[in-house]
C-alpha cells in the first residue's frame, strides 16, 4: 500500500471571520477527516485560519486554458458594465 | 499548487492531422509560452509548456522537496538533547516546518504530472538528489545554531528570487516557505549568539560549528557559473533569476557583518572588503569536496538515505490502516477519488 491510493484534496482557508475561504494548496489524505487534520497542520501552523474546507480534487471542474479567450469573451465587450463608462458633468456629487 | 489542474496540455496535435499541421500547432503553442515568459506572466499547470521546461522544473522542485525532508534529520538529531525546554520547543517547530516545506514542494511538483510515490521512490533509490549540505553531521548543539544561521541563510538567499519563478505553483510554494524561513534563521542566530557570549567553552563550540559549516554553506549555491549546466537555460525560462555566483556573493556580503556582530570569525583568510567591487572578496572553494559529497562520499550520505527509507517502511502500517479505515467508513477510498 502506498500513498498513491490516497486521494488528493484541495484546501481552502478562511483567514479570519468576514473573509472568504481562499485556496491554500493541496494535500493527500485517506479520508475527509484526515484531510482536515492534515490541512490544519500543513496550512495553519501560524494561525493563518479560523476555518478550513477540504474538497476532493476530482470534484472540481475547471475551465480549460485553451478556451480562455472565447470562454471569457462575453465580459470583454461590455465596458458599459463599469461605472467609469459613463460621462457625468463636472461638479455633480455623490454619483 | 492545484494538482486538480495537473497533467499535460491535451491537444498537442489533432489526431490524424498531417505532420506539418502538428508542427505548426506546436510552434503556435511555443510562441504563446515564450510570450508569457517574456511578459513575466506565470505559467500555470494546464498551460502548454516545452517538455524540457517541465522536466527541468520537476528535477529542481523534486530536489528541493527532498532537501527539505532530508534536512529534518541533522537537526532532529538534537531535539532530545536541546539545552532548554525553550530551545527544544523551537527546534521541534522548525523541524515540523521543514516537513511542511517538503509537502508544499511535492504538491507543486505533482502539478507537473508526476506523483508523490514516484518522487519518493526516486529519492529512495538515489535517482533524484537532495542538497549535499545535509550529508554533513551535526556534531554539537552549536551546529543547530550554525545550520539556522548559515544553511537557512543561504537557502533564503537562493529562495527569495524563486518567489518570482515563472512557474506559478513553485513560486507560490516559495512565498510560503520564505515567510517561514525567516524564523529559522533568526532562531539559529540567537542560539549561536547565546553560545558566543557564554563561557569560553561555549564560545569555542560556536566557533567550531561556524568553521565547519561556512564552506559547505557557500557550496549550496552550486558550481561556479562557468561550470553550471542548468543555469543558462533556467534563467532564460525565468525559473532562476540570478546565477549561482551572484547569489553566493550576495550571501557572503550579508554574512560577514552578521559574523562580526556574533563575535565569531569566518574560516577564510582571504575574506576582505573590496572597495572597488563593492563586495567582499573570498577565497577559493574546494570543489573537489563538493563533487565528492554529491557523488555519495560525504560523511552521512548512507545514513541519511537509509534512515529515510526506514522511516518510509516503518510508516507503511499507518498508511495501510488509514486507507483501510477510510474504505470501511466512507467506502469512497480507491474508487471515486483514487
Describe the protein.
The complex is a heterodimer of chains A (95) and B (338). Chain A has helices at residues 32-43, 68-76; strands at 8-14, 21-28, 51-56. With 95 residues, chain A is an alpha+beta fold. Chain A has a domain at 8-63: Ubiquitin-like (UB roll) (Roll), CATH 3.10.20.520. By secondary structure, chain B is an all-alpha fold. In chain B, strands 1-2 form a two-stranded antiparallel ribbon. Mean pLDDT of chain B is 91; it is low at 1-14 and 333-338. Classes of the chains: A alpha+beta (95), B mainly alpha (338). Chain A binds chain B through residues 1-8, 10, 23, 25-28, 30-32, 34, 41-42, 45-46, 56-58, 60, 62, 64-66, and chain B through 1-5, 9-11, 44, 46-47, 93, 96-97, 100, 103-104, 107, 110, 115-117, 120, 172-173, 176, 180, 316, 319-320, 322-323, 325-326, 329-330, 332-334, 336-338. Chain A: This is 1,2-phenylacetyl-CoA epoxidase subunit PaaB.
